[in-house]
Structures are given as structure tokens and as C-alpha cells.
Design a protein that fits this description.
482 residues, mainly alpha, two-stranded antiparallel ribbon, 16 strands, 45% helix
Length: 482
């Protein structure tokens, strides 16, 4: 085995990509191979005793504690995280790292080494070092950063208001770039159909926007405003349909038969919570220690509030799975994924059905070709809006780029069985009316009640799409007046 590894590293040619092209090949004599599956294992074997070297410092290292256990340094590939609860403890670990690397003939790049303070205010209240604090490695001062990137997620100094929500802001920029690259490549390949665009978005863009949502999803969902990640999704939905910005997000999503990204995040949160239940029984995993320690923090009391410092309480607040008033943890079991997602869908529908604040006459008069008398009316009649939003209760299909919602109220309108249906029923009771359905739209050349086969569907055209959309809106408006 040793001879095989030595043969792998006997000849390691590398080159550098520049604006002018690839450089000439040269030999790499330092480090492990980039992208090689064996590299993380080799690095882990070489640093296997580093954890014990740090723990030998004892109390001087000031290692953090979770569930009564000492948290060791975090190692992944060639990245290393040193954790300490005090400035003096971190500096002691840096000195120990220097001695260890000198003995192993390793080199640490001090220019790429950063210190991030994860305490409220960062010491001096602005994220900088407190008086008398100084960090150095091998005589070189280390940069104190307000954020750092680890395993693809950007972490910033914690705050009680936002937590890890800053991770989503960075992912939104990466997702926007991935979306534009996907659309450009799709047009080059002729994949211009709405269904194709949505499928490509789910394959290439959605994973970028939702990466690590198990960590930052709680803090993002607690925000009252729309997240930057969700805005990328909404922009795509409007763009792919050619809709203006004035069209609400609920309408654009419903016409495509899509759910907001927050539905996927909640699903991932539930699954991760259930996995944590199993990891808590593993005595050798840091994740299980953190989960147990957080549950103990939740047991100490406090209201289930959005601003709670307890991660588990914020988590359960988002999932609408509050603990009982007794405060015990006997209720803590695996969450029902279907029930939580259904509650989230009902909450989303209720939010979509909330009446909008009427515009003032002054603001209406400033809009060209808009009568001031119509300023208090919503952009779409409520019955039509309801018709598009109930796609989760009925069926939808695409015909020439337009989604028609075919709702069978007798089979799907069962408030006692569907929380989302109950939310809609409650809305109509408050309005003093009953559910309205859209009139049946043209079914095409397929069999009655079924969509046309893909081979028989005509390619979408701008004129046909616009004409069908106008016809659908006119029919819905007529149904609203009746």
C-alpha cells in the first residue's frame, strides 16, 4: 500500500489556467492532489494525533463544552477550525499548532488564516478586537474577519436578530449567477418551453439556493420580509412567463403550479430534525452533543418566541410544533413530515389571502393611464385569485405555455381532511360567500379531462400564449362578477 501511494506522488504534473490559456506543466512537490478521493484520508491520517496534542493543553486551551464533553478542533480535508471560549485560549492553541507543524514539517499559510469572534458585539461592540487582544502565528499577525467561509457556507458574527441568515444572502448571489448561466445555455440548446425551464431551474439553481438550508433556514423563515433567496425564485417565475413586476408572487407561482422555496426548506428542516433525534443517541458525534446541550437549554424555560437564543425553540417555532405548557421533553419525538408541510401550506395560503392595503388616490393619480377610482381595488378580482391559488387542491396542466387550474370542488374541497382547504373555507366564510371555480378551459385535442400527449401538444407561441391568457382572465373576471 505504501509503495502504491509513493508511486502516485512520484510524478504530479500541474498547470495554471490564465486569461491567455493554460500555462506549461510543472511538478508539484507540496501538499496532496487536488480532487483526489484519497487526499482527505491521507491528510486525516497525517493529522490523526493533532486533537490529542491540543487537548494536552488542558484548561489553557479553553476548549468549548457541549453536553459535558470537550469539543475538539474541526478538521475537514486541509481546512482546520480551532475553537476556544477565550482569546488567551485561542492564542495558546495557535502556539501549539506551530509546535506541531514544526515537528511534522508542515507549513501554515498565515495570509489565509483568519480569526472570527463569535461573541455578541465582537468585544468592542463593532466586531473588532477588544482592548489588549492580539492573535499571531509564527510572529505574523492574523487578520480578524467579520465573516468566514466553511464547507461552502459563509458564517458571520452571530446576532440575536438574524443568526445565520447571512448565509442565504451569499447563496442568493451564487444562485442568481447559476440561473443566468442556466437560461443562457438553455436558449442555446433550444430548451425554451416553460416546463423545460422549470425543470432546469430545479436541477441546477434550486440546489444552489437551498444549500445548507437546514442551518440557515430557521433564521430566514423568521424574517418578516421576503428573503433574498426567495426573490431569485420569484424573479425566475415572472420572467419565464413574461409577467411584469406588478403581478404578485402568489399568482406567478400558482400559474406554474409551483410552491415557494420555503416549502422545500421546511421539508428539509423536518427531515434534519428527525435525523438529530437519532444522532442524539450516538455518544461519539459532536452533532449529538450539540443537540442534547440545546435541548437542556430549552428545558431551562422561556417562551417559544422567534427571538429566543435557543436554537431548538426557534426551530420548533418555525415548524409550528410548540412544546406543551408543562415544559418537559417527553413530547420530543420525530415530527410528522406530512403534517408540518400541510400546516406550512395553510399558513402560506392564509398569507396570500390577506387583504392588501388600498392605495391612496395620490399614488394612483401618479400612475399613467390608471383611473384614481380604481386605486382601491386589487390587481385581480379575489375569486379569480382564489381560483389560481387552489391549484394545490385540484389539478393543473400546461397548454401552450398557460397553466389552467381544473378544480373539482366535490372531490378536493374537504376542509375536515385538508388544512389548506380549511384555510380557504375560513376565508370565504369571512367574505360571506362560497368558493368560486374557474370555468372549464379548452382541453385541446386529448381525451376528455386529460392533457394532450406531449407528442401532440403544439409548440408555444407568444401570440397564442397572450391570447389564451387574456381569454382566461376575461372568463375569470366574468365569473367574479356573477
Amino acid at each position: 500500500m505504501l509503495q502504491a501511494i509513493q508511486a502516485m506522488y512520484a510524478d504530479v504534473p500541474v498547470c495554471v489556467r490564465t486569461e491567455e490559456g493554460l500555462s506549461g506543466c510543472f511538478q508539484s512537490v507540496l501538499g496532496v492532489k487536488q480532487g483526489c478521493p484519497l487526499s482527505p484520508l491521507l491528510f486525516g491520517i497525517f493529522l490523526d494525533d493533532f486533537e490529542g496534542h491540543i487537548q494536552q493543553l488542558g484548561d489553557a486551551a479553553a476548549l468549548p463544552q457541549l453536553a459535558g464533553r470537550t469539543v475538539p478542533p474541526l478538521l475537514f480535508a486541509d481546512d482546520m477550525f480551532l475553537l476556544s471560549s477565550s482569546a488567551s485560549g485561542l492564542q495558546a492553541q495557535l502556539h501549539a499548532l506551530q509546535d506541531y507543524c514544526n515537528a511534522k514539517k508542515l507549513t501554515v499559510n498565515a495570509k489565509k488564516t483568519q480569526v472570527m469572534i463569535m461573541r455578541p458585539g465582537g468585544g468592542s461592540g463593532n466586531g473588532k478586537l477588544a482592548a489588549g487582544e492580539f492573535f499571531e502565528y509564527a510572529g505574523l499577525p492574523l487578520e480578524v474577519a467579520s465573516s468566514t467561509k466553511y464547507l461552502g457556507l459563509t458564517f458571520s458574527q452571530l446576532s440575536k436578530q438574524h443568526g445565520f441568515a447571512s448565509c442565504a444572502d451569499v447563496l442568493a448571489k451564487a444562485g442568481r449567477q447559476a440561473m443566468f448561466a442556466m437560461r443562457r445555455r438553455a436558449w442555446e440548446l433550444g430548451a425554451c418551453l416553460v416546463e423545460q425551464q422549470c425543470m432546469l431551474f430545479d436541477v441546477f439553481v434550486k440546489p444552489v439556493l437551498s444549500y445548507g438550508c437546514e442551518l440557515w433556514g430557521v433564521d430566514v423563515l423568521l424574517r418578516p420580509d421576503c428573503s433574498s433567496v426567495e426573490r431569485v425564485h420569484r424573479w425566475f417565475c415572472r420572467r419565464v412567463q413574461g409577467l411584469p413586476k406588478q403581478v404578485t408572487a402568489a399568482i406567478s407561482l400558482a400559474e406554474l403550479g409551483r410552491q415557494p422555496l420555503q416549502s422545500f426548506w421546511i421539508q428539509q428542516l423536518v427531515r434534519f430534525w428527525n435525523r438529530l433525534q437519532n444522532s442524539a443517541a450516538d455518544e461519539d458525534r459532536v452533532l449529538g452533543w450539540a443537540f442534547k446541550d440545546n435541548l437542556e437549554l430549552m428545558r431551562e424555560g422561556g417562551d417559544l418566541a422567534a427571538g429566543s437564543a435557543c436554537w431548538s425553540r426557534r426551530w420548533l417555532h418555525v415548524l409550528q410544533s410548540a412544546p406543551p405548557a408543562s415544559g418537559t421533553l417527553e413530547w420530543l419525538t420525530e415530527l410528522d413530515e406530512a403534517a408540518v408541510i400541510e400546516r406550512a401550506a395553510a399558513a402560506y395560503l392564509r398569507k396570500c389571502l390577506e387583504p392588501k392595503t388600498p392605495s391612496t388616490p395620490d399614488s394612483a393619480s401618479n400612475r399613467p393611464n390608471t383611473p384614481a377610482a380604481a386605486s382601491s381595488e386589487p390587481p385581480f378580482p379575489p375569486p379569480r385569485r382564489m381560483g389560481w391559488l387552489v391549484n394545490s387542491l385540484g389539478q393543473h396542466r400546461v397548454h401552450d405555455g398557460v397553466v389552467y387550474i381544473l378544480v373539482d370542488w366535490q372531490s378536493s374541497w374537504e376542509p375536515e381532511k385538508n388544512i389548506a382547504a380549511a384555510a380557504l373555507a375560513e376565508h370565504w366564510q369571512q367574505q360571506g360567500g362560497r368558493p368560486h371555480t374557474l370555468p372549464q378551459q379548452p382541453r385541446g385535442r386529448g381525451s376528455r379531462g386529460q392533457a394532450d400527449p406531449p407528442s401532440q401538444q403544439a409548440a408555444p407561441s407568444c401570440q397564442a400564449t397572450a391570447q389564451l391568457r387574456r381569454s382566461a382572465r376575461a372568463a375569470a373576471s366574468q365569473a367574479a362578477r356573477e
